[in-house]
Amino acid sequence: MGRAYHDPFSRHVFRYERAMASAPDISVVIPVYDEEGAAPALAREIAAAFAGRSYEMIFVDDASRDGTRAALKALAAEIPQLRVLAHRKNSGQSRSLRTGILAARAPVVVTLDGDGQNDPADGPALVDALVAGPSELALVGGERVKRQDSQAKKFASRIGNGVRKRLLKDTANDTGCGLKAFRREAFLRLPYFDHIHRYLPALMLREGYRVEFRPVNHRHRQTGQSKYTNFGRLVASLSDLFGVMWLQSRARNPGGVDEV
């Protein structure tokens, strides 16, 4: 019997069948939009990367116009850890991630992009670093080495990362890397807004957590095309950047809480 879960910040309801009797240790969340060509192969790679671990795999289909949803559902028998959630309306990458994280049953969440450019084989190492770290370590992010993007995209990212890092002081060299491992509880403490996925390190630091980064592989896109443009990223990033700066200015950290 499927259960209904309500996002308190949305009218949307999603249903799913429980794939496992007990909660897993890791939830891998992947937002996808029109990735019929990439998603099935990516799901198999994730299954191989996390084999032997207690995990679930949650693809969030952001109202794709192609056969992404059907292609993923066809893998249900092959990959019992797979869950597919579907938005009724296209809502963007950040909302897709939030949908998956709200549905996640594990205390540790791994996210990666649905286009296949992030290498799932790097995910377990990020999880291990997070779990082995101190309790205040909330996020271990990937930093892409030898990026397989166009020169224009790499140049725009280098400028954007430099400006953001200088203004937000978030220590992240590559906040656009979709491959991250973090504590679900810590994410749910953050104020939600569209494009939040680009600012997770800064927002985690704002809450008093620690963040770390590890080098990860980056691959050529094998199928489909990017859903973003450099100009579109620039416009969104400028407004979001000032919003995050405002959030930082309003934060007051108690430095810890003691029960007496």
Give your account of this protein's structure:
It is a single chain. This protein is α/β, with parallel strands linked by helices and 260 residues long. The protein has helices at residues 39-49, 68-73, 93-103, 123-132, 151-168, 184-188, 200-206, 230-249; strands at 3-6, 13-16, 26-32, 55-61, 82-86, 108-111, 137-144, 180-183, 210-216. A seven-stranded mixed β-sheet has the order 5-4-3-6-8-7-9, sandwiched between helices. Helix 5 (151-168) packs parallel to helix 8. The longest helix is centred in the C-terminal third of the chain and has 20 residues, at 230-249. It is globular and about 50 Å long. Residues 1-6 and 8-20 have low confidence and may be disordered.
